[in-house]
User: Fold these one by one.
Assistant:
Number 1:
Amino acid sequence: MIGIVFATHSEAQAFFNRVQARPIGEKPFPAYEFQLPDRPEKIIAVISGIGKVTAALATQHLITTHRADHIINAGVCGAVADDIAPGEVFCVTHSMEGDVLIRNATTVTYPSDCLGFEDLPAARLITGDKPICNLEKRSRCAELGELVDMEGAAVAKTCNLAGIRVNLIKVVSDFADESTEVDIKQNLPEACARLSGVLFTGIEKLIPRAAQSDPLPSKVGTLKKLLRFVKVEHTLFSLPLLFAGAWIGAGYRVAPLDTLLLVLLAGTGARTLGMAMNRILDRKLDAKNPRTANRELPAGNLSLPKAFFVAMTGLMIYLSACILIGKTCTLLAPIPAVALVSYSLLKRLTYLCHFGIGLVMALAPVGAFVAIGDGEAFKLDLNLEIVLLAGFTFCWMSGFDIIYALQDIVSDRQNNVQSLPARFGSGRAQHVAAWIHIAGMFFLAAFILVAPAGKTAWFMLMTCTSATALAYVPWIPLPVRFFPISAVSGIAGALVVLVKDLT
């Protein structure tokens, strides 16, 4: 759901008139509800009041109370760039807090996107505690950005911490100088009228029209919920590594197609089981976390019996595939199943919980390796190459899970959820993740030397290393660092094995 934050009624009134918004409450913030023509989704807008603190609180209110997963902060701003005129509307790509101008501190920027508002010119925004009304401060701001306001960075920061999308759409009302008050009074009506039109057009792009005819609306809706519930797109995490393990198990040749299909089936079933049980066991914790409160179970979009049905379906698929593969996989099948069901419980016990999912992921290529050589007799004969691949997988997933947990530091501390970021802070946790990832690269390098592999494998190692390094670039949003960046890293790591014989 989209939530909109306006600072004042004056900035919002033109837009409210256009969409015929109706008030739905006054506390803790004045709130309004509306729908665009032919759009099924309701939108909530709140009036935060002027300032960073109230803007952050209003944003948090939209996320936690109204389950907003996309925030738009719309309002007026001042221009500190000399080539900008009142009435121009901008999409802010990066914002920062104005205290960087007062103290000699590292500039921390909060990214926001322009999806739906791509036609607008981009700008950088400085958010201050007080209006900029003198030339000295104005010139200092101009060194860092083009616009100034009193809310935008606080909204972006809150959304970044929650891991949700945010747009900052700002219309210029003044020049942030001694004539600010006069300019705002003169330019506000026209500026807000322009903002209203831009905002309306952008939201129209963001929300698809309601389908005119849908023969199976309820079934399709349920299917979409189930696919979102198990995060089907994240299967990219495991499948390439499964095939890499099978490739090693077959002696770097193509394994029999029927066995490969059973490996794929087992991997898909196992992943479905693990994701479903993770969501089931964590549903109460998810409800307390603003970033995860809109997931299917805590939001009430999927019933608990249906969630258990998904988990049991995954388990049946996994066990059936293992039985069809052979005796070794059948006897060993409970080990990954128990790990998949229980790894999410570790966050209640230890800040080393990230290594639980790393271990679960490391079992995937090992299982595929075992499956290729399985038969009627029990046989478990691992070689050094598969151990090295499993070592990379363990480090790759453990490190990225630490990065993923950076989104939830505040919530984890409040709810006594264990994680490295919550225990030691963002900086130290990223240092640990980096060393773990470096160890993973050494596992891949050792594989290339032991196998041995050709130049193409070294190139894929460089690709994997480069993709992994992007996880530590501060201006890349944390959700993007986890997916798709981690998927690219994992696929490149798997390709080190799959291209072994290429020169």
Note: Residues 102-106, 211-220 have pLDDT under 50 and may be disordered.
Number 2:
Amino acid sequence: MSEESVNDTQTREYITVRIGPQLFGLQILDVHDVFNPENMTPVPMSRPELAGVLNLRGRIVTAIDMRRRLGLGDRDDDTSPMAVGIDHSGESYGLLIDEVGEVLSLADNSIEANPANLDPRWAEVSLGVQRLDGRLLVILDVSKILRFAGEALAA
């Protein structure tokens, strides 16, 4: 590979999050804040992935339980989830996660296609994977997370 083509490689920054035992990544450009969700109001007769709505600094935020969205089951302990705040199509969302990690700068050409054995629910919302020191980082696509069976998840 020539030095010129190495310098042309685009990189993007991703924030890592842990959901259950798995490490996931979100493009940093999609994330506007990280917060502890409080005073969440359940939405009657909503999808299981919809944890509720909350007021965050005057904005109504739809909270999406990422454990349920990804088929990872409910939280076993009494720890409170964290939320990653995103805006999409004029709506505010909080993706409920277990833990926020670090910011990584990854080259676009280092992200691999989803492996054939990746859980179909994960593959449905993934842009690809990145290998990190014996762990697999699944890169999430926000627009795909917010769609389920062709319907938007907004409350």
Note: Helices lie at 3-7, 66-69, 120-123, 142-145.
Number 3:
Amino acid sequence: MTPETDSLLPASERIASAAAEQKSSPPLTENRYLLIFAFVTCLFFLWGVAISMGDVLNRHFQQVLQISKSRSGLVQLSLFGAYAVMGIPAGLFMQRYGYKKGVLLGLFLYGAGALLFVPAATAASFSFFRLALFVLACGLATLETVAHPFIVALGDQQTSDRRLNLSQSFNGLGAVIGPVIGGYFLLKAGRHEEELNAVSQLYLAIGIAVCSIAVLFSFVKVPAFINHPHKNTTAVSGKNRENIFRHRHFRWAVAAQFFNVAAQGGTWAYFINYGIEEIPGMTDEKAAYYFSFSMFMLMIGRFVSTWLMKYIAPNKLLWFYALVNALLCIVIAQRFGWPSFIALMLLNFFLSIMFPTIYSLGLKNMGEQSQRASSFIVMGVVGGALFPPVMGLIANHSTAAAYYLPILCYAVVFLFGWKFYRVKEQL
């Protein structure tokens, strides 16, 4: 039906026609993929717990092992540095062996790293803890490399932004639970070295749980045309594998992801320090619970923003959220007490969509190159490894002043969402 003939129809028929067109739009995912979609979404929850627990460990190690803020920032270096090491190998493994074995590898490394916390606690060694975190984070990097294109493959490309943001909402749920667990079992304990036993017991339980999930997932049947990425993508006509960086929007997505996670890592690493320094009477345990609440804001932000994307283009939400966060960082750095602390918590609402939206926009129209592109975008997470130690050098003198630095990161994310998200190939 043409626009001319449509305009001649009565209003009631035009409304019915518009409703029929909306109804015929691609679903979020197909019914046959619901079980797989649910299981892979659970993976987002698991690494949400692990990442936010790392920020609690940051403060715990400052107390128990008597290390400075800048040195405790090496916790984030171990966590996010693994993404730079494991991003491409995980992508190659996924291409050769499929999504399912990629997930199992990620869960194995996650569980092994968690179990290494037991001997690390016995040795009371910060270096040993960092090794355990690195192995665990290699598992997280593998899961992220696999899970994102896995979710993209479970439906139409038109709904990939919404699908990724919905799955990332459960990552936010895990991020809410992580600080609650850490605050109760770790920061509540105290400052004595024997409290490292709490770390040991907690991560032993996590390791056993993750290994159990791996066993369950081994029984999930994944269709062959979904399980093998190279069989599930449409080739980009005339494009060779070597030309991946000819895509400007992809290059900018890698850069935007680097700076996005840099801002995220620095914000989370010193959240608890900011609370106890700027709010009178704030304890470590209470600050951890407020951190959990800020992660709840992140989760709500993902659910709300996933709904908003039905009406507002994802790139527009991205640049607007980046602008808001830059303004919030200025408020945080001014040390206004509770108003600044509330601004710090609100950062996570607007951080909510950045990772999945940058990821999905970066993979647009990449075709058979999507898996390689996924690896590079995941490697951009190394920004979270490099930025917290730098912020820590400033935080050694003033934690509040350190929050000026993420403004630079949000400027890059803003530019990507404002202009450079557009698919444009350059020779």
Note: The radius of gyration is 22 Å.
Number 4:
Amino acid sequence: QRMPDRQTCADLAAAFQAAVVDCLVDRTAIALGQYRERWAPAAPHLVVAGGVAANRAIRDALEQLAEREGAQLVVPPPRWCTDNAAMVAWAGVERARRGLVDPLAAPVRARWPLDETRAGTIGGGRKGPKA
């Protein structure tokens, strides 16, 4: 079987990227709407980090979405978007700049819920037959 030529491979990659961007923008728009309905009708911050934020097409599309929705897009510089450790470090720096620091006595929790006021999900954070 013959391998596709370079142009066909490039077209396939571009089509895949476009589909991914469309899905991410669609899901993010839904999430922004739900956020506004539930917590804050004011303009939220849309934070994009990690490997996803390193992709220029994704960044541009989410920037356009944020502008349409009146949200502020917050994205770290691309050099900090390569892996999870860099993303966590950047988030820590941003929190420290705002004076949002916790004492070192904070409990260690492997699975910290995003919203501690909500009831836990069934099996949330547990593995094995009893989950």
Note: The first helix runs from residue 6 to 38.
